[in-house]
Write a structure and sequence with these properties.
Shape: elongated
Number of helices: 8
Largest sheet: none
Order of helices and strands: HHHHHHHH
Number of domains: 2
Distance between the termini: 48 Å
Helix content: 55-70%
Radius of gyration: 14 Å
Structural class: mainly alpha
Low-confidence stretches: none
Length: about 110
């Protein structure tokens, strides 16, 4: 049986969201021909959002649970609902600033 990809492992309770860097390190050390986002089990847009702002990881998981793309999820929600998944007030402020800076929401 092959090892689960990062996203699958998190949903299965076999990995923590905080372990993403470990999976990326494994990808660097592997002979995989997959792109890093594929190796993680992410879509290209999910990976791009995460690279832009790693605080969006919880939101990426939430959108995936709802069965919609991260960009669609961002488009449907206001800043307050997007930052509600933040782990701290500082992370919430960072996400809100990033959403405004990248034009995803209006200030």
């Amino acid at each position: 049986m092959s090892k689960l990809k990062y996203m699958e492992a998190c949903f299965a309770g076999e990995a923590l969201q905080e372990e993403i860097e470990d999976y990326i390190e494994e990808w660097h050390e592997s002979n995989s021909t997959e792109e890093v986002y594929e190796y993680l089990g992410m879509t290209e847009e999910e990976y791009a959002i995460w690279v832009e702002n790693d605080s969006m990881l919880r939101t990426i998981f939430h959108a995936r649970k709802l069965g919609i793309s991260i960009n669609e999820f961002i488009g449907r929600n206001n800043a307050e609902s997007l930052v509600a998944r933040s782990a701290s007030p500082e992370e919430a402020a960072s996400i809100k600033e990033w959403l405004a800076r990248t034009g995803r929401i209006q200030k």
